[in-house]
UniProtKB/TrEMBL annotation:
One matching Pfam family: NHase_beta_N
Name the record gives this protein: Nitrile hydratase subunit beta
UniProt superkingdom: Bacteria
UniProt cross-references to InterPro entries, sorted A to Z: CN_hydtase_beta-like_N, CN_hydtase_beta_C, Elect_transpt_acc-like_dom_sf
Organism: Roseovarius gahaiensis
Length: 104
């Protein structure tokens, strides 16, 4: 396969964060609904550019690729995404803070 040699892959167990599990689930669900294909995801990952690819974590790259494909599909507009992100940011800087504000 193409790409650059990055050395050995660490096979140690990884304790996945909740958001990483959600990214994985979102990828599976969106693919099953026909919003994008594996080829579309790969294209979005390859189009990121080396700087973005090297500075983002594995799941950050996946959510960026999912987002790009959903935008291209027309699931939402960039404006709608921005508005929703602002609403979520108003909840608080962390999930715990948002939950605390919600429960108050």
């Amino acid at each position: 396969m193409g790409g650059q040699d990055a050395g050995p892959v660490c096979a140690d167990d990884h304790d996945f964060a909740l958001w990483e599990k959600r990214v994985d689930a979102l990828m599976v669900l969106c693919g099953a609904k026909g919003f994008f294909t594996v080829d579309g995801l790969r294209r979005a990952l390859e189009d990121m550019g080396e700087d973005a690819f090297e500075t983002m974590s594995y799941y950050e790259r996946w959510i960026a690729a999912i987002n790009q494909n959903l935008l291209e599909y027309g699931a939402y507009t960039p404006s709608e995404l921005g508005e929703r992100m602002e609403q979520i940011a108003e909840r608080g800087p962390t999930y715990a803070a948002a939950q605390k504000a919600h429960d108050a």
